[in-house]
From TrEMBL:
Taxonomic lineage from the root: Eukaryota, Metazoa, Chordata, Craniata, Vertebrata
Swiss-Prot/TrEMBL keywords: Membrane, Transmembrane, Transmembrane helix
Record's compositionally biased regions (Basic and acidic residues): 22-31
Keyword Ubl conjugation appears in the UniProt entry: no
Annotated region described as Disordered, given as residue ranges: 14-34
Transmembrane parts of this sequence: 87-104, 124-148, 261-277, 283-304, 316-338, 380-401
Keyword Membrane part of the UniProt annotation: yes
Name of the featured protein: Vacuole membrane protein 1
Amino acid sequence: FVFSGRFKVNEMATNEASCEQPQKRGTKDKPNGYFADSVVSERRQKDREERLALVLWRRPIITLHYFLLETFITLKEWTLKLWRRRGTVFLFLVLCSLFSLAYSTEGAHQKYVQYLEKRFLWCAYWVGLGILSSVGLGTGLHTFLLYLGPHIASVTLAAYECGSTDFPEPPYPDQIICPEAGRMEGSISLWSIISKVRLEACMWGAGTAIGELPPYFMARAARLSGADPDDEDYEEFEEMLGQAETAQDFVTRAKLGVQNMVQKVGFFGILACASIPNPLFDLAGITCGHFLVPFWTFFGATLIGKAIIKMHIQKLFVIITFSKHIVEQMVSLIGGALPGPSIQKHFSEYLEAQRSKLHHHTGEDTPASENWLSWVFEKVVLVMVCYFIFSIINSMAQSYAKRRQRSQQQRHSEEKTK
């Protein structure tokens, strides 16, 4: 009995030693794990800095070369996707052929075909500008400031000058000319101007909602597949989630506030973020994709917020700003400033030239006067469009550089395993 007791005591001691041994080994391996994580993070940071240095004004030849290669790869991927959905593509081509046949055949239906063509091209133009404005996670072309805002402003000025919004078509919307009917003072209301620009404004807002879909689909695919995210913004989002408790700066806390609002409130949280001018809304798409929010919940709230609520807020701001009385007060305030009289003169000449163009009719000579304000605005638009094109080239070149880095890392890991 004593011998068996000693045997059990020795056995228990041996088991305790064996249980402690892996714990000690784990404590020894812990610094190695931290070291490996730091090496991986340093390598990722170095790769990211190399990609960000790949821009046209630093390395133009390599950037253009990578841009062309990435374009070829993207076209190849899109071609394969279309081939997998060849039934839908065939149906679309059949519909296009039927519309082309109806378009080229003479008959009483031509007036309806022309009306549909004009409306479709008009809506597609503004939807495309809306997509360009929001696509690219904040690097898009600011088409509201360049196109939609000036369009609403010109319609507002013309409505107050003409006393009507019944601009003859054509040339409206390409060119605004006052109707030949007599002017009626006091017949212009805020609601009539809103109704005049409602279609293009809502189409632009719908385009901005469509432009928010790529971050959503990217984050959703990365979460479902469990693979490493193929987007730097998504990587930053995951890093931000890991540093949620230690965040100190205002920007990170604002991003976390948007993320918490979208995650906890759901549909109405997305609607609230989409209904106001919000530079952090790109994060809402990534958050909804990461937490697997249903597609129609995200897109429905985004569409309602951007195309209806936010668009009416922006329209009201532009219409009130460029109403007749506000513009006259702005001109008088410009004259009261220090360099005001010279600027006031050019601004008044520009407004007078725009008014004379509104009363130009067929057969009359168009007033040929170009003001420096319109010249400056055209050059600003040109510079911003060029910058947008350069940013697209840089982004695609950096995407190809990331492909190369990933393939090199995979090759290196395969060589290690061998």
